[in-house]
Predict the 3D structure of the following.
Amino acid sequence: MKLITCLCRGEERVGALTEEGVAFLPYPDMNTLIETLPPAAFAAASTAKPVPLEDVTLLAPIPRPRQDVICLGMNYRDHEKEAARYDAEAFTKEKPAAVYFSKRVSRAGDPDGTIPRYKGLVERLDYEAELAVIIGKTARNVKAEEAGAYIFGYTVLNDVSARDLQTGHKQWYFGKGLDGFTPMGPCILTADEGIAFPPALDISCAVNGEERQHSNTSLLIHGIPEIIEELSAGMTLLPGTVIATGTPAGVGMGFEPPRFLEAGDVVECTIQNIGTLRSTVR
């Protein structure tokens, strides 16, 4: 099932996509839905007649995550190589361990929304198409072979990055966490939808119609079961936790010369079975 958050007649609602449109669900927000219902109960939760999709405006499926998004850096081998080529001091890994960082999100960016340019603050604006995993129940000391049972679903996330801030500050929090730097959506594909675990989905990104990134989530260096086992060994992952699993090669800094985003550019991040997250740089 595909779940969305949307605006309908000025009211923020959560719902499920059906052949007839949007079936609204009786929960105040997506975080409450995630911690309340198992996916199998969604169909029974809606009794109202569906609303045509064209009558609503899509928002980020989790507009206000309860915690910072957990991210993985350099989690595809080809992106690890292009990052080190761009700035060896900033991106070369000395050990094979996963690189974790957090992304501050006061409000996630909407599908068909905008990415702020921050002219005067940011000179090297970049994109990163990523598969985001959403935790469905409290996870602590979870073994890799049990990880699938803790996943609520998946969405598309663009880990927008200010490369000059990221490398200039010698850590990634500021360059990754500016307002508007976490577009998300267009929906959540629930984990019961019949895709294999761990998911092997095509992932791509196009800028102004030109494909820049293309890979498959089966090529993650550190897979989703490993990520959940390692993180939950030392921190509690609450329902609604968003984990961005990393981006493949083809980001702007990976080109020679680099091809960073400019005002007016349209970025489309697509993941098989989930959909396309479209953003315009303003």
